[in-house]
Design brief:
Length: 191
C-alpha cells in the first residue's frame, strides 16, 4: 500500500500517542482517520470511496472492519484484540497537550439508539462542540443506574488530568442527582 504523506503523519501520531496499541491496530485506525478526513465523513461507504487509490474496495472494507472487530469475529482470529478503554486516557492527554487554560469542561451524556443501545459518554466541551473522550455502550431498556458507569469512565480519565486543572462536569436536567458531582469527582480522583 502506497499512501500519501498525511496517512503516514496520522500513523506516526497514533503510534506516539497510543504506544500500547499493536502495529496492525494502529494501521487500521490510521486508515479510518485518513479516510474520514479525505471523505469529510466517517460513514464507511464514504471512507471506502475516499481510499480507493489504496486498493480494492473489498480489501479495504475487510481491513477497516477487522480493526473494530473482536477475537473470533476477525478475518484472522489469531490477531490480538485491543481494549478501547485503554485509549481513553491517552486520547484525553493528547487533547490536553493543546489545551490552553486551567479549566476543563466535561459533559456527561446518555444517548439512546431506539430500544437497542444507550451510549453513556463523557465529552470535552470545546468551542461550542463536544469531543467524546470516553464512552460505554449499554443495552437499552434495562434497569440499573448509569452513575457507576460514569464513575468508572471518570476514573479511567483521571490520570490524564493535571492536578492543577479545575474540572467542571455538566449534565442535562434528566441526569441530575444529588451529590453526583461531589461523588464522581472524589471517586474518580479528580480534584
Amino acid at each position: 500500500m502506497r499512501a500519501h504523506s498525511p496517512y503516514y503523519q496520522i500513523h506516526r501520531a497514533l503510534l506516539d500517542r497510543f504506544p500500547a496499541l499493536r502495529p496492525a491496530t494502529v494501521h487500521g485506525l490510521a486508515l479510518w482517520v485518513y479516510g474520514t478526513l479525505l471523505a469529510h465523513s466517517a460513514c464507511e461507504g464514504a471512507v471506502l470511496a475516499a481510499l480507493t487509490h489504496l486498493g480494492t474496495r473489498d480489501t479495504l472494507r475487510q481491513r477497516l472492519r477487522d480493526t473494530l472487530r473482536v477475537g473470533a469475529d476477525k478475518r484472522c482470529p489469531t490477531r490480538c484484540d485491543w481494549h478501547l478503554t485503554a485509549c481513553f486516557a491517552p486520547l484525553l492527554r493528547w487533547l490536553l497537550a493543546w489545551w490552553q487554560g486551567n479549566d476543563l469542561a466535561l459533559a456527561l451524556d446518555a444517548t439512546s439508539h431506539g430500544d437497542v443501545v444507550v451510549v453513556v459518554a463523557i465529552s470535552v466541551l470545546y468551542r461550542g462542540t463536544a469531543l467524546p473522550v470516553a464512552w460505554q455502550v449499554l443495552p437499552a431498556n434495562r434497569a440499573g443506574a448509569w452513575l457507576p458507569h460514569w464513575l468508572h469512565l471518570l476514573a479511567t480519565l483521571a490520570p490524564a488530568v493535571p492536578a492543577s486543572m479545575r474540572v467542571v462536569v455538566f449534565t442535562d436536567r434528566g441526569l441530575w442527582s444529588p451529590g453526583c458531582g461531589r461523588r464522581s469527582a472524589r471517586r474518580a480522583g479528580i480534584p
